[in-house]
Amino acid sequence: MQCVSLTLASVLPSLRCLEITQQGGCPVTGFYGSNCSIPCPDVNCQYCHIETGYSQCCKPGYQGHHCELACNKGFYGVDCNEKCGHCREVNQCHHINGTCLTGCAAGFMGNLCKIECDKGSYGIECNGTCGHCRDTNQCSNVNGTCLTGCDAGYEGDLCKTRE
């Protein structure tokens, strides 16, 4: 049985896992038994049945009946329900916390690479500065091209060349 994720799944335990502790389960993660001192047999198990030790909720980043599988590529967190951001390499999203291990793809920033570059900047690490676009809000955050053309007196895809 897998946990039901919450909006703040990376911070809070899922409702299902919380239910287990409130219904006589062990309040300490990873343990079972009458005095909650026996480690759950599955290393990636967050909560296991208080009597049998059977996995009931996996730690963030894991899935499967015995919590033996890391999240599928492109997903992370509790029940593997969170979608990875725009990582430079799609296979380099950390399965537990969603951080991009090799950085963000062009046009995105932040630990999870889910934030577009600020207006006026673009590219890897948002280090590029947009040119003289006709509409400053229409500069591609990925490659800096001016989507609606250049200001008067400028030309080229990036509108950085004087006519």
TrEMBL record:
Transmembrane segments: none
A GO MF term: scavenger receptor activity
Protein name according to UniProt: Scavenger receptor class F member 2
InterPro entries: Growth_fac_rcpt_cys_sf, MEGF10/SREC1/2-like
Record's keyword terms, sorted: EGF-like domain, Receptor
